[in-house]
Amino acid sequence: MLSQTRPHPTSRPRRGAWGVMRDVLFALFLRELKTRLDGRWTTALWVIGEPLAGALLMLALYTLMRTREIAGVDTVLFLLSGQLSFMLLRSLVLRLMESIDANLGLFAYRQVRPVDAVLARAGVELAIFGGMALLILPGAAWAGHGLLPHDPLGLLLALLLLALLGLAGGLLAAVGTHGALALLRPVLKMAFMPLYLGSGAIVPLAHLPQGLREWLLLSPLPHLIESIRIALFGPAYAAPQGIGLTLPLVWAGLATLLALLLLQLRGDRLQVA
User: Fold this and answer.
1) Do 178 and 266 contact (CB within 8 A), yes or no?
2) For 53-95, what is each residue's pLDDT tens digit?
3) Is 115 exposed, middle or buried (0-12, 13-18, 19+ CB in 10 A)?
4) Among 121, 128, 125, 124, which Cα is nearest to 98's?
5) Distance of alpha carbon 83 from alpha carbon 131, whole angstroms
6) DSSP label at 177?
7) What are residue 177's phi and psi, to 5 degrees?
């Protein structure tokens, strides 16, 4: 009579590829979150204070100009919507750019891949900005600047596309500037200043000359910021003509394809660097 083999009571079922990836991402997420906040309350306070500082600075300037409304909407809400949107994209691109270098020692484990480090850091940035928005917006409402989105679905779509563009740009920057090409990182950081000035975050695009506005709308960022404001404020907001989500979607798709191509070509170098 053949004896039946019984599994050891302490044995665990083998995890599939998705299970391994989920566990790796969760562990990397916790590691990145601890590193990001550094265990100090001052760091968490600065995460919230940075966008507020920029918005308050511009608010003071507009107050001196006796401007209570910009493009038909409350000045505070106009500035906050632009500041938060721009800083989310900038934070995703610039912090994801350094995510591979920050986790090189972990790539000795075959379960950990460079793209896992990028995705985990992206999750941390999105979680931080989500929590920051949940603190800032109720605070603005308490101060008399409350707002209910005119088009919640349109707002969600624009925010998702903004996050996708930041993730694609961050992945491309992380892979493309790794190794000897790290010299390009300061240039990329400086490039965000003209992008900030031309994004419509602090100056309404509708007030700019048409020729200049057409050049600025070649960038996906003004389309996303204006789309977010249109979804927030509705017809009250005087948005410029030609705003849409098609161009940001094309940019995000091209950046993702190029990043994945570079990742495929340079994958071995990333693992052993």
Assistant:
1) yes
2) 766 676 677 666 666 778 788 888 888 888 889 989 999 999 9
3) buried
4) 121
5) 15
6) T
7) -105, 15
